[in-house]
Amino acid sequence: MLVLRDQRRGLHRRATRRVGSWAVATGDLNAAVAGDQAKRARRALEEVCARGDFAKAPELYGAEFIDHVNDEDFHGMDGIRRSVENYLRVLDGLVIRVEDQVSESDRVVSRWTASGSNRGKQVRVSGITISRFGPDGLIAEDWTVSDNLSLLRQLGVRRALLIGIGWLRSR
Predict the structure, then answer these.
(1) What 3-state DSSP class applies to 11?
(2) In which band, very low, low, confident or very high, does the pLDDT at 163 lie, cut at 50, 70 and 90?
(3) Most Cβ neighbours (<10 Å): which of 69, 72, 107, 158?
(4) Three-state SS annotation for 17-51
(5) Does domain 41-170 have CATH number 3.10.450.50?
(6) Measured between alpha carbons, how far is 102 from 148 in angstroms, rounded to an integer?
(7) Is the pLDDT at 9 greater than 60, yes or no?
């Protein structure tokens, strides 16, 4: 059990969860929430983004989710699918490994490395995703930047052009 206090009245009460304006006096609940958010952000990257497991998306992302990836914006569950499919088209056997995470307030910053192959050539690309969580505990918005120049260098000019042409055709 956690000792909670009503921030408006200064009253104390024992409880096992947050209710209304009650907040944890010790900060334990905030740490637990931050830990849950970090786990959710990790699962989103490793399971939905890397594996294309779209059935798990509603457990992790809010219905009005907005995904800002480099210079593009994607909206809702369909946007998640379109964003992830961009990566899955380029990299076969895509694996995303979360290297570091930092949580503060309603945000989690994840530094990650993605690896896979394109026509047999192994590549790695690094990136950072900032996830903002809504009041429902689900990811409401992501901002992602990845080192696409490094990816293009690893792929070479010919492969990069073929990927670019394929991307343009898919639009």
Answers:
(1) coil
(2) low
(3) 69
(4) CCCCCEEECCCHHHHHHHHHHHHHHHHHHHHHHCC
(5) yes
(6) 23
(7) no
